[in-house]
Amino acid sequence: MSRAVVVERPGSHRLVRRRTPVPGPGEVLVRVAAAGICASDRELYEGRRDAAYVRYPVTPGHEWAGTVVAVGDGVGAGLVGRRTVAEGFRSCGVCERCRCGETSLCSGGYAETGFTEPGAFADHLTVPARLLHPLADDADLRAAALLEPAAVVAAAVRAARPRAGERIAVVGAGTLGMLAVQLLAASTPADLAVVEPRAARGARARDFGATSVLNPEEAEAARGGFDLVVETAGAPATAASSCLLARRGGRAVLTGMFAPGAVGIDPVHLSLSQLELRSVFGASSAAWSDAVRAFGAGLLDPGALVTHEFPLEEFGAAVALVGGGDPRTGKVLLRP
């Protein structure tokens, strides 16, 4: 038997017991070791996620790590026993964008583990074997559960193309921001500043490689001072303010998830400053590979971001912590 959290409809969930899933052709069965809860999971639970990107009832959980325990037809038995993570987007693999390697832009229709497909807030889940990124035999699966947000950050770093000696700013010191600091520190910037209004969060950023921390007022005075700005907060004004931080001819990458009503980017400033602006939603297969390699090489320490762990039975309490505003709350995990 296997347990799973099922969100029947917004605001309503239950823990169900079911037969252990059986992997179909091309699939593997994974025993989940840890699964992270992020703001999008809370949006799903509260019914605030765009209807095109969720299908109820659903078992959430798109950030996870575990061990392969069975394989379906057409999958090599050598995967059994392997520690692993897997991409969440169920890209088609055959459309033009997929064939160009841009799997997060798949035009075959949206499908994602934990939103439209059963996710990892469960003892077990099945995923296509082609989406796996196997880990080292001694990999810390608790830490590896954060490789999904790390892959998003890796996609941002790919788009940003950091160069040694640049002045870089990271806007926001949440999970994405802390992971961004770690990856960007590996590019040996001359300055790696973090913009964060909460002093305690900003202080932690220094532990991960930030060379300075700016509150919003100090950031205002630093406008135009950075070669590269990576926005991770998704707050109403941070897309616009991030562009103002970049120098003329600089680069800005937006990774935060913005809600309707966010402040728009000034097109006059964008044009006159000749900024290069990119946005990131999810991660391509290549970005996943970058994150997994960085984790294996010790360049990422995502486990240090975890502050709370709950069993599946306490999903309600766990999801209430996420986005609750307490600066002491970092990453929240479910541990089946």
From TrEMBL:
The keyword Oxidoreductase applies. It is an enzyme of class 1 (oxidoreductase). The keyword Oxidoreductase applies. Keywords: Metal-binding, Oxidoreductase, Zinc. Pfam families: ADH_N, ADH_zinc_N. InterPro entries: ADH-like_C, ADH-like_N, ADH_Zn_CS, ER, GroES-like_sf, NAD(P)-bd_dom_sf, Zn_alcohol_dh. It catalyses: 2-deoxy-scyllo-inosamine + NAD(+) = 3-amino-2,3-dideoxy-scyllo-inosose + NADH + H(+); 2-deoxy-scyllo-inosamine + NADP(+) = 3-amino-2,3-dideoxy-scyllo-inosose + NADPH + H(+). Its EC number is 1.1.1.329. Residues 8-334 form the Enoyl reductase (ER) domain. Pathway: Metabolic intermediate biosynthesis; 2-deoxystreptamine biosynthesis; 2-deoxystreptamine from D-glucose 6-phosphate: step 3/4. One of its GO terms (molecular function) is oxidoreductase activity. Its cofactor is Zn(2+). Belongs to the zinc-containing alcohol dehydrogenase family. DOIA dehydrogenase subfamily. Catalyzes the oxidation of 2-deoxy-scyllo-inosamine (DOIA) with NAD(+) or NADP(+), forming 3-amino-2,3-dideoxy-scyllo-inosose (amino-DOI). PANTHER family: L-THREONINE 3-DEHYDROGENASE. This is 2-deoxy-scyllo-inosamine dehydrogenase. It comes from Streptomyces spectabilis.
